[in-house]
Amino acid sequence: MKLLVIEDDREAAEYLEKAFDEAGHLAHIAADGETGYTLASSGEYDVLVVDRMLPRRDGLSVVAGLRARGNDTPVLILSALGEVDDRVTGLRAGGDDYLTKPYAFSELLARVEVLKKRGGSKDVETVYRVGDLELDRLSHSVKRAGKEITLQPREFRLLEYLMRHAGQVVTRTMLLENVWDYHFDPQTNVIDVHISRLRSKIEKEFDTPVLHTVRGAGYMLKA
Amino acid sequence: MLGSISALMKTTAARLSALYLLLFAICAVGLVFYMGSLTMRMLTGQIQETVSEEVLSLGRAYQRGGLTTLVRVVESRSRQPGAYLYIIADPTGRILGGNVRSLEPQVLAAEGWTERPFSYERYGETDARGAEVPSAREGPHMAMAVVVRLPNQMILLVGRDLGEPERFGNVIRRALIVAFGMMGLGALVIWFLVGRRALKRIDNISDASRRIMGGDLSGRLPVAGAGDEFDRLSQNLNEMLARIGALNEGLKQVSDNIAHDLKTPLTRLRNRAEAALAKDNAPQHRAALEATIAESDQLIRTFNAILMISRLESGYSAEHTASIDLAAIVADVVELYEPAADEVGVALSAAAPGELTITGNRELIGQSLSNVVDNAIKYSAGSGETPKVRVTAARRGGEIVVSVCDTGPGIPEEERGRATERFVRLEQSRSQPGSGLGLSLAKAVMTFHGGRLELSGENPGLCVSMIFPAGDSPNP
What pTM does this model have? Predict the structure, then answer.
């Protein structure tokens, strides 16, 4: 994956460049808004990571400018502000996701990978399959190895989100945002408990685990 | 209408008008009475003068022709229109002539001026159509009379009907009543107009200030341009608001900068620890790095909470509020925390009827309620045999109350006020993890929504109630 990181903090930018490289992605760095805008305009990047406070041109203005010119490269906005209204203004300017500094790199990586996949989205599919696990979005039914599994509505949405992003790391905050539609930090292990309930339903009577815990990052559904 | 009149009555303008009206009325009454009595005295003086002249003229007739002439003159004068009152009596009081019909004898005994009712014959008076009224037979008339003794002890009384000054008095009384009526009516009209105008401007000012207190510091008080005291007041308050706005803006700028400047190095710190964790596999290093990351996360969380509280307290923009359902938020949060509560043996339940719609920020309320529920689970875990946390939402009068009640140790009544202050962690909670900002944040969020946070319940057991104004959506 090819990324453009528009970030004026040199150390943070270098760290990101290196960390993305270790994760197998190529990251280019732009140190100010104007340069970032010019580079991003080429349309050759899969995902843009844009800081909000930038010299020469504000991050939100870069995103709004790109959107105005029909460039719809997925954008993740980084910000040290991180309050409810900042988030909303960020998304309104055309951002696809929003992350508050300081963040865990694993969180950023997971979100960027999900954003990249968004292009070839599975949203149109009505049935998700991971190994012998099958979820039908129309009939709201879940089967594993042909055997019906009964889930609560929220558990169904949790599994649906995990299956849509099968093979990708999904973080706890991503789950809270997408399954519960809240954007605060739940502080305690509330999400983990939901996951373990779901896990017991889809794994208990079967031999192979499908819902994996990714240490220090989140969860991944994988056959 | 009645309500608006009673509101008017409560205005300063109305009170001042009433006071002015009263003072003015007292002055007017005093003035009229003074003028009236002065005029009456003058009229009386004039009457006494003319009566005295008549006495002198009769005296001269008596000197000229004696009693017979006097009687004749009196008889002839009595028959003229608008005649004086006459009595001629001998020293014993027997009436020899004149036009007075009857009289108490002691009147003639006392010489000098007297004012009393007399019955007397009047001739040559005309009625309204000009026809002659031969002899009026009305009741007694007030008259001013003087009794003199003629040289041979004969008694002469000459008087003048006081009908004229009485009429004058009546005119003054009527004028007074009319003037009072008009004055009262005028005062009422002025009172209403002035009072309503003042009331309207004060209403405008208080509306504007309510909006400003609601957090919209860019709002200004209306200035009518009349340059009067209201305008001066508004202008001064507007200048004050501009100054507060500027200070507030500066403060916001500073806190944004602090947030940015401190969070960037914190990000680096966290990143380095994370990077080191990815490489270093020595167990003791791993533990230290994981602890470092956890601590920095806690630091960041505290920092975010402080910034959020400051923002909320300094007039958060109302731009990001929408129509939201509190019952749905309660259901969401309880559903989110139920498995975690179950894990520590706490029974978490909810009771919220139908829809409870308010205007607010779902994210902020959800976060505050989560904090409160999280605390309740934490403190009630392990308390008694059946630890419970119950979340209820209900309409109560003009308010919507969302309560979180637990079976935990509770907070002593005298410490409840302090519990919502920033960083205050009560003695018994020191052992629990947390920043001590959960309740402060909830309180700030409630203030932002025009509501309040209340702590209640009997110890043990604590109820934290988030009380929202129900607004204008009475949905029974």
Answer: 0.62
